[in-house]
Amino acid sequence: MRKVIMISLTLTGAVFLAGCDKSAFGDVKRSQTSVNVIDESNLNDVMLSAADPNESVSYFTRALSTNPDRIEFKRGLAKSLVRAGNISTAVSAWKDVVSHPDATSTDHVDLADALIRSGDWKGAEAQLNQVPPTHETYKRYRLEAMIADSNQNWQKADSFYETAVGLTTKPSSVLNNWGYSKMTRGEFTAAERLFAEAITYDPKLFTAKNNLVLSRGAQGKYDLPVVTMTQTERAQLLYTMGLSAVKSGDVTIGKGLIKEAIDTHPQHFETAVRSLRALEDNVTN
């Protein structure tokens, strides 16, 4: 009788342990699946932000070969192609993304961005027209402003630029674009203000510094603005100002600025030297 009881208890314990093992195995499996999803998501982010663009393209291409319907892999490939400078293929990749049933307004904005990079302004405008007004993002309004600029719709451009500036904590790039827009319209004072503001947000943005000098030169202001600059940047800005002066007909001032640029540059400033020689040859002739 005792043996029967022991066998019964042993079998019961075995069944209980088997049940525990099965449950534990299931929990471990679910946990591993969860970790894999997290790791995959993190890897996607790493490939997009830190990896070499071409490596990123290869990674997402491989991922799509085994998971062709995963929209996050499609997005990753499209973004990586833009980063790699392969714009025509990026446009095709973004079109593939927006045709996916899970595509979002952000995807249409990103396609518009790629289309602008490819020079297809009308296509970009058509994409943005599909985005509802409730999708209010910095990138959307920055692109809207650029398209309005291309259509020379200055009132809309200014409105979109202003909205974009208010939607980001790093508006240096859009302020620089806005300033360039003002400069192309001949509004040099407004352009100068916008370039100067852009530099306050990003003191290393040389494009804005160069544009600031151009906007001042167009107004006959041939002194360098008070902004942070390296010695090399100072030489380059003096050269830009010198060319601006020559273009405005102030050749003597321009030659002086170019000479100063050559003397200021820490290395041999070949471009400035050639320009100065050309100016002197024209004067001689």
What report would you give on this structure?
With 285 residues, the chain is mainly alpha-helical. Helices cover 77% and strands 0% of the residues. It contains 14 helices and no strands. It has helices at 2-49, 53-66, 71-83, 87-98, 105-117, 121-129, 138-150, 154-166, 172-184, 188-201, 206-217, 231-247, 251-264, 270-284. Helix 9 (172-184) runs parallel beside helix 11. The chain starts with a helix and ends with a helix. Mean pLDDT is 87; it is low at 1-38. It comes from Pacificibacter marinus.
- What Rg is obtained from the alpha carbons, in whole angstroms? 30 Å
Ranges where pLDDT stays below 50 over 5 or more residues in a row are 1-38
The separation of the N and C termini measures: 126 Å
- Please give the count of helices: 14
Instruction: Determine the fraction of residues in helical runs and give it as a percent range.
Output: over 70%
Q: Choose one word for the global shape.
A: elongated
Q: What's the total count of β strands?
A: 0
Q: Report the mean per-residue pLDDT as an integer.
A: 87
Query: Structural class given helices, strands, pairing?
Result: mainly alpha
Largest sheet: none
Strand/helix succession: HHHHHHHHHHHHHH
Detail the topology: elements first, then pairings.
Layout: H1 2-49, H2 53-66, H3 71-83, H4 87-98, H5 105-117, H6 121-129, H7 138-150, H8 154-166, H9 172-184, H10 188-201, H11 206-217, H12 231-247, H13 251-264, H14 270-284
Helix pairs in contact: 2-3, 3-4, 4-5, 5-6, 5-7, 6-7, 7-8, 7-9, 9-10, 9-11, 10-11, 11-12, 12-13, 13-14
TPR repeats: 172-205
Protein name: Photosystem I assembly protein Ycf3
Keywords: TPR repeat
